[in-house]
Every structure is written in structure tokens, then in C-alpha cells.
């Protein structure tokens, strides 16, 4: 007797439906035995107070079905935190404290049926939290177009520094357009905020952590220095002995001040690739300026990558008003700053993340040290490119100051 394929499919479907109807839902990893008896409590609790936190060690109870130990505590202003540690560990760390007050922590041993022991209470006295350390060391000074700030964060906590300004002098603190929070977990936090008018105003700064603990407020009156984009219409290439040899006549120095921030080949500065020592080019700005910051826009290489070949990695900026015509970097020149380009992602050579690409496309910016000295002539000296050699490629060079 022959059975059609469609009939086989029908029989199979019916059998599956019958089996599914007869099945009951089961819970994976459900304890095979329910134990309603609470486990014994932890014992021999020892406290080690740390900055903004405390580490607790203890002796576990002997219950075989012990699952974890739980700490429940108040970090202030009615906010409760909970930390759990596996039964394979004999300690845990309670975190999130924004003060150095005494805090009670309740420890519970919990079995596999989620039944908790009686609590064991201990008192912790956390040491100075990161927000207080940062606030005490916070220094803010006026700079070109805004202010620079620095503070210490030795525990490398994730901190937010919130800048505010009283725009009209009525005690109402706001964040104006372009005034952003500073986020960092660096051991020393440095940041510069720009876009502020060159008038005296009252500013306020608060440090916050990820548990929404806030420091007290730093109030300062600042008058940012006037800053403008130094116009390139008066710039020219001031060729001196020792300046780099161009790869082609058209990959010349004029390409880096033509206003094209993201040019394609061949509208770039490009020097000979067999250079065996640091290379440099010299600019005449037309008149002397005080410098605040500058920007290098690297050349987008084949493969749509920036951190390769002749683009700048380590370099120097020199200034002069009366450069020696023999081209020597002698006393007629002043070293203004030494710079190192860092990929935001820290990824290896050949790998560029979206953050790396955005940083390069927007231009690598660096601040000049604050100075009242003005300079007319600028020298860009390549110490090492991304290939590890000396030749130079660059899309655009821009300076701010007054």
C-alpha cells in the first residue's frame, strides 16, 4: 500500500500536536529541592574602609545549598544599594558612598531557594570619596575663548564635572550653548571649554559621580581671553634652508592654508618619502599674533584611513619674529609646544574606529601654553609620522589667537 507524501506530513503534524499538548512547562535550573529553612548567617566580618567604598570579608555558613551573600545599605538621602557576592567568595565591596559618615550595612546569606538568613549588621566609614577629592583639587583658569580646568582623581572613578554660568548676574545658573559636561575617569582630569565671551562672568562647577552624589560648588569669576580664527589671507610659505623637499611641485606648503580642510590628492602638503631626519616647513603669517590653539587636518589616505604613512604623529611647533636666514633652529626660534596625536580608540595600526575617523576628519586640535608673546613665523617640525619615519603629509593647518 502506498501512502502519499501529504498524508505523511498530516500524520506527523497531528502526532506533534498531541505531544505538545501533553507536555508541561519546566523551569531550567530550578532547584531540585525547595529549602524553606534560612541558612546560617555570615560571621567574623572584617571591614576595610576605602575611598567612597568599603570591602567586607567574612566566614560563610556551612549550609550546602548556600547560593550567595547579599549586602543591603543606604548611601544617603534615602537611597538604598544592594551588592551580591557568590558563595565561592568570602568577601564583597559596598560602593557608591558620597561622604565619610558612618553607614550600616546588613549582610544576608541566601540559599538556592532564595531564602535569606537573619541579617548581620556592620558599620562602615568610607574614606574621602572621589567627588570630594576632585572638588578639593579643582582649579579653573581663564584661557582663550573660555576656561581650562584640572583636578585629581587618583581612584579613577567615573566622574562628571558640570560647568554653569550666571549669564545676567541674577543668581540663575545655566549651561549655555556649547558648554558641555566633562566626563572622565583619568587619574588627572584636564579639559578646556570654549565658546565663552571675553567678559567677566560668574561661573560655578560641581562634581558628580555615577550614583548621583554631588560635591559642593566651586564659584569663580572668570574673564576669558579674546580669541579669533587667525585669517590665512596674509599667509605665505617662508622657505628657509633645511626645510623639507616636496614630493611634487604641486604638493606644496600653500596647500595647508588654502581653506580646504578635507582635501583629496593632490591638494595636500606631501614631502619626499626617503627623508632620513625630522622634516619641517615654515610659514609667514604676515604679522605677529598671540596663539591660543591650532588644528591639523590630516590627509585621507588610500583606503579611507588617517593614522598611516606621512600624517603627523609626533611633532613640534616653533615660533620666531626674526628667524636666522641660514635656517638653523637656533636662539632665533622658540619651541612653543611638542605634540603627540593619540587615536581615541587606542586600536592597533591599520584599524580605525568611527571615533578615530571623526577625530581626524574634524582635525587634531592642540592648545598652546598661555603666553603674552606674539610671533609672526611658524615652523612645523615632524619628529615621527604614523609610518615611523619623517616625511610629512597634511591637509590643512589652522591657528586661533589674537
TrEMBL record:
NAD among keywords: no
Which residue intervals define the domain F5/8 type C in the entry?
258-399
Q: Please list which residues make up the signal peptide.
A: 1-21
What InterPro entries does this protein's entry cite? Answer: DUF4959, DUF5000, DUF5126, FA58C, Galactose-bd-like_sf
Keyword check for Cytoplasm: no
Q: Which UniProt keywords apply?
A: Signal
Q: Give one Pfam hit by family name.
A: DUF5000
Protein name (record): Uncharacterized protein DUF5126
Origin organism is Mucilaginibacter yixingensis
Amino acid at each position: 500500500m502506498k501512502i502519499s507524501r501529504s498524508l505523511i506530513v498530516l500524520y506527523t503534524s497531528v502526532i506533534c500536536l498531541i505531544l505538545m499538548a501533553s507536555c508541561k512547562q519546566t523551569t531550567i535550573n530550578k532547584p531540585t529541592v525547595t529549602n524553606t529553612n534560612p541558612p546560617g548567617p555570615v560571621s567574623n566580618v572584617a571591614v576595610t574602609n576605602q575611598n567612597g567604598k568599603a570591602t567586607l570579608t567574612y566566614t560563610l555558613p556551612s549550609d550546602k545549598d548556600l547560593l550567595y551573600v547579599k549586602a543591603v545599605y543606604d548611601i544617603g538621602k534615602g537611597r538604598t544599594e544592594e551588592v551580591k557576592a557568590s558563595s565561592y567568595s568570602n568577601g564583597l565591596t559596598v560602593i557608591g558612598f558620597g561622604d565619610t559618615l558612618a553607614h550600616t550595612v546588613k549582610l544576608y546569606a541566601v540559599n538556592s531557594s532564595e531564602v535569606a538568613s537573619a541579617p548581620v549588621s556592620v558599620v562602615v566609614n568610607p574614606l574621602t570619596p572621589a567627588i570630594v577629592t576632585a572638588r578639593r583639587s579643582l582649579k579653573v583658569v581663564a584661557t582663550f575663548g573660555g576656561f581650562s580646568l584640572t583636578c585629581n582623581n587618583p581612584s579613577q572613578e567615573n566622574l562628571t564635572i558640570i560647568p554653569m554660568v550666571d549669564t545676567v548676574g541674577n543668581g540663575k545658573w545655566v549651561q549655555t550653548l556649547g558648554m558641555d559636561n566633562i566626563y572622565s575617569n583619568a587619574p588627572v582630569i584636564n579639559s578646556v571649554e570654549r565658546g565663552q565671551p571675553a567678559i567677566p562672568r560668574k561661573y560655578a562647577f560641581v562634581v558628580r559621580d555615577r550614583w548621583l552624589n554631588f560635591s559642593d560648588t566651586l564659584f569663580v569669576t572668570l574673564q576669558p581671553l579674546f580669541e579669533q580664527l587667525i585669517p590665512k589671507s596674509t599667509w605665505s610659505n617662508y622657505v628657509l634652508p633645511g626645510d623639507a623637499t616636496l614630493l611634487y611641485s604641486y604638493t606644496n606648503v600653500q596647500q595647508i592654508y588654502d581653506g580646504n580642510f578635507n582635501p583629496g590628492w593632490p591638494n595636500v602638503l606631501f614631502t619626499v618619502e626617503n627623508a632620513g631626519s625630522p622634516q619641517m616647513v615654515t610659514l609667514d603669517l604676515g604679522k605677529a599674533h598671540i596663539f591660543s590653539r591650532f588644528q591639523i587636518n590630516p590627509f585621507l589616505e588610500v583606503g579611507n584611513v588617517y593614522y598611516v604613512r606621512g600624517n603627523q604623529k609626533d611633532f613640534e611647533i616653533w615660533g620666531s619674529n626674526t628667524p636666522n636666514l641660514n635656517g638653523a633652529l637656533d636662539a632665533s626660534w622658540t619651541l612653543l609646544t611638542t605634540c603627540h596625536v593619540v587615536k581615541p580608540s587606542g586600536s592597533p595600526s591599520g584599524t580605525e574606529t568611527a571615533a578615530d575617523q571623526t577625530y581626524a576628519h574634524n582635525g587634531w586640535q592642540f592648545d598652546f601654553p598661555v603666553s603674552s608673546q606674539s610671533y609672526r613665523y611658524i615652523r612645523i617640525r615632524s619628529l615621527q609620522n604614523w609610518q615611523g619615519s619623517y616625511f610629512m603629509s597634511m591637509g590643512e593647518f589652522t591657528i586661533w589667537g589674537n
